Amino acid sequence: MPFLQTLPDGTLLLKLLVQPKAGRNEIAGLHADALKLRLTTPPVEGRANKAVVAFLAKRLRLPKSSVTIKSGLQSRHKDIIIQGREEQDARKILLGQHATHAK
């Protein structure tokens, strides 16, 4: 699946499609080559970007400092760098729990 890959330095690159102002915070499965993330937060003053980092860090059980938005700060399409998690584990956590809602 192309939405998540391990980079040469051992970090992960996650391709994300963010839907702000959703009814709840949740992973909504795959959309083309990206993982779709619904957030209740509006895309105002960087709040949605902060919510992306907080949501992913909590879901992956990592500190927020391990999750960085590499590109797409002003876009719904974002490339996220994740440190401290193996690709197989991250894939299982992100896709295996997509029916559960994290707030």
Structural summary, described in words:
The structure is a single chain. The chain has a single domain, classed as Conserved Hypothetical Protein Mth637, Chain: A (2-Layer Sandwich), CATH 3.30.1200.10. The chain has 2 helices and 6 strands, in the order ββββαββα. The chain has helices at 47-60, 87-96; strands spanning 4-6, 12-19, 26-31, 34-38, 67-71, 77-82. Strands 1, 2, 3, 4, 5 and 6 form a 6-stranded mixed beta sheet that branches. The chain starts with a strand and ends in a 7-residue tail after the last helix.
What's this entry about, in short?
β1 (about 5) and β2 (about 10-20) form a beta hairpin. The model is unreliable at about 100-103 (pLDDT under 50). This protein has a single domain, classed as Conserved Hypothetical Protein Mth637, Chain: A (2-Layer Sandwich).
